[in-house]
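Anyone? Bumping this.
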Amino acid sequence: MSCKILVVAEHDGSKLNASTAKAVTCASKVPGATVDVAVLAADASALGAQAAALAGVNKVIVAENPANQEAVAAIYAPQVAKLAAGYTHVFGPSTTFGKDVMPRVAALLGVSQVSDVMAVEGTHTFKRPIYAGNAILTVEVPADAPVVATVRVASFEAAQTGGNAPIEKTEPAVALPSHTRFVSRSAAATGRPDLQSASRVVSGGRALGSADNFKIIYSLADKLGAAVGASRAAVDAGYVPNDLQVGQTGKIIAPELYFAIGISGAIQHMTGIKDARTIVAINKDSEAPIFESADIGLVGDLFQILPELEKQLG
Amino acid sequence: MRRIMVGVKRVVDYNVRIRVKPDNTGVITEGVKMSINPFDEIALEEALRTKEKGLADEVLAVSIGPADTQQQLRTALAMGADRAILVQTDVNLPPLSVATIFQKLAEVEQPFLVLLGKQAIDEDNGQTAQMLAALLDRPQAVSCSKVEIADGKATVTREVDTGLETLQIDLPAVLSVDLRLNEPRYVKLPDIMKAKKKPLDVKTVADFGVAAGSTFKTVKVEAPPARSKGIMVKDVAELVGALKQKGLV
Ligand SMILES: Cc1cc2nc3c(=O)[nH]c(=O)nc-3n(C[C@H](O)[C@H](O)[C@H](O)COP(=O)(O)OP(=O)(O)OC[C@H]3O[C@@H](n4cnc5c(N)ncnc54)[C@H](O)[C@@H]3O)c2cc1C
Ligand SMILES: Nc1ncnc2c1ncn2[C@@H]1O[C@H](COP(=O)(O)O)[C@@H](O)[C@H]1O
């Protein structure tokens, strides 16, 4: 069967998020699929062109509306549901953006969503993690209803650029609610690599003991050109902000190199780094569960090891 | 009556090591410790605190699940919920059906706030709150870490990939809660006794006109691929050597 897939773009108003290109890759893996991208924005002049440049994109559909200045699910979802007419599949990234918008779209289309697609097995068959990634479900969804899915971004490479898809403007005729108003968003301008796309990540856990001590994690990260991450315990204790949390309820990442420092290795943390290429664990407890999953383990006190490590890295 | 409705799902306790059934039809749940979904405990705690602040009159706990789910609802009542409804079914309903049952209950109970977890830790769907909000055509706020209610509105802070986002929403609304919203209270023994007298209604899925099955088919459930066994190094020099050997530094 021929599949028409609409990918909902995530962006910050001027730049497409890398998650969009990853969702496009996932969509391209659906057998026989034509992939269009929907860009909802207040002003899509730059965004439409970026989406059109993604390799494998057939067409970009742009819906410009001042109400689309910020991605508010209650405002996005009815427009996406309207644009979904004629498509067999609607995909969005499994980031906090997609997790907010896509289930609302699914309900408007009268279907349950396939969350966190990690592999495409057929036009209507997908693999997804359940139980914090401790089991992998292969699910088959009906072919006579729209498929709404979120794409686990750590499972797919970003689509290349170099494409030149046509851009089509549209104004979905739907009433938009006024019951939900955007107030503010904290901007994460750290100057460090982005946790979700960085090839190296250095994470610290409860063992760091304070926000001040956490500086040695930042210092090692800067030395390696790495992003900084953290366990839930470190976030809960206020050592670092919530957007650094890695794990089941934080970010799912797949860096080339991951340092888990003073992190015990709870399953909820490990699910966030299952796809990391090399995991290095530093922990003073040789029995810590993290060593069961680490590629390279070192037992010892992080406060002695880290300064030495920085020195030897030169 | 200013009512808050809370979702309470019975799930495998978060400390249990999950094992896949040898026939790949699911995970082993027989003889395994079951608990309230951790996010739902947080949702319930938020509802109770809202009531304790004088902003609500009644907290209604709702669960859809097998008969044994009465255990989790009794715990919710012991924590402080005023009454509970069990929609009893042995079938694992898909999120849209769950959301539809919540919608029908909301139409009867008229809560000004529905508090659900951001995800149920069994299937990690993370959909029900958003679907319910869509079905009710009301505001949603997903992954809340702070909720302030005043004048028929809520100001909510949500955890998002870039940090924190604040929305102002009109009530009634549906919220899904994140881990840092609060720390749920412990249940005290006298409260367990008291909870036995609180009302717990049992209904069936048929009462809500929802199909007692799923259109999604489980093809198989597998264990994730195991990571290959790593190495232990004895000091920093060996660690740096191993990283260099892999071409990582
Ligand atoms: C529903 C749910 C969702 C969750 N989601 C997440 C999630 O997304 N991400 C997440 O991370 N967690 C999550 N958790 C929490 C998780 O279960 C663990 O509690 C958490 O990961 C523990 O963090 P930690 O490893 O930093 O702390 P601990 O478990 O306290 O471990 C600290 C470690 O540091 C070591 N240590 C102490 N001092 C030193 C030293 N000087 N040098 C070296 N090592 C030292 C100790 O040996 C210990 O192993 C979740 C829990 C639940 C219930
Ligand atoms: N069977 C159920 N019974 C009660 N609440 C549920 C049920 N399923 C989902 N929920 C609620 O919806 C939230 C999100 O679930 P899910 O969308 O399945 O990840 C849960 O944290 C619960 O609050």
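Late reply, but here is one note on the structure posted above: The helical segments of chain B are 38-52, 70-79, 95-109, 128-136, 189-195, 236-245.
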